[in-house]
Write a structure and sequence with these properties.
about 230 residues, alpha/beta, eight-stranded parallel sheet, 9 helices, 8 strands, globular, binds D-xylitol-5-phosphate, binds zinc ion
């Protein structure tokens, strides 16, 4: 496997007063250019934290050259998620634990023009969702409890990554495997070796002196680890 690892900086760790400029900071050239900008939408119900919603995503969509990857940590995504796809997000991820009709929701998201993503929290088994994942384009494996940036990576979730990787490689699922939470220079190697395609990184990118250089460094480490798999 020699696929180029995708890097998705999470603006949860950026300066919310200058989000456009923070996206520009990872809109460089080559290796240092982010593939997706990860946008964490939280509603203070599904998770204890509150961040931003559709009006902000619509504004970011107008200024970002990088496709938006919206991660909805909200209740009732069946009702609210398609709006993010209609706003132009490239990928809209909902939580398996929150969706009432996840198969139908995936179809709605695709019909509205985005990829459909399904996320599972660290304690949510992958096996329960394999049937549903047939309808999805991306699987977001949470490697921290959703809600806050800057938490420590939970290595036990890599078993789910390995299982998903196997199902994709054997043709049972057609998915991009994404990981979110605690990804940094120390943890990205094991995630890449387990088979992750797309790496979300918040504090590791926006906590760095040079966010673009951090994107490049993460990608280089993931590439080296992925090639050895
Ligand atoms: C947490 C969010 C993450 C968060 C990751 O609930 O889903 O996207 O921004 O931040 P780090 O990379 O700092 O763990
Ligand atoms: Zn996220």
């Amino acid at each position: 496997m020699t696929h180029r690892p995708l890097i998705a900086p999470s603006i949860l760790s950026a300066d919310f007063a200058r989000l456009g400029a923070e996206i520009d900071a990872v809109t460089g050239q080559g290796n240092e250019r982010a593939d997706w900008v990860h946008v964490d939408v939280m509603d203070a119900h599904f998770v204890p934290n509150l961040t931003l919603g559709l009006p902000v995503v619509e504004s970011l969509q107008r200024v970002s050259e990088i496709p938006l990857d919206c991660h909805l940590m909200i209740e009732n995504p069946d009702r609210w998620a398609p709006g993010y796809a209609e706003a132009g997000a490239a990928n809209v991820t909902v939580h398996a634990e929150a969706a009432a009709r996840p198969k139908m929701l995936a179809r709605d998201l695709r019909a509205a023009g985005s990829k459909a993503g399904l996320s599972i929290k660290p304690d949510t088994p992958l096996d329960d969702w394999v049937d549903v994942l047939v309808e999805y384009d991306t699987l977001l494996v949470m490697s921290v409890e959703p809600g806050f940036g800057g938490q420590s990576f939970i290595p036990a979730v890599l078993d789910k990554v390995r299982t998903a990787r196997r199902m994709v490689d054997t043709g049972h699922l057609q998915l991009l495997v994404e990981i979110d939470g605690g990804i940094n220079a120390d943890t990205i190697e094991q995630a890449a070796a387990a088979g992750v395609d797309c790496f979300v990184a918040g504090s590791a990118v926006y906590g760095a002196e040079d966010p673009a250089a951090a994107v490049g460094a993460l990608r280089n480490t993931a590439t080296a680890a992925g090639c050895s798999r």
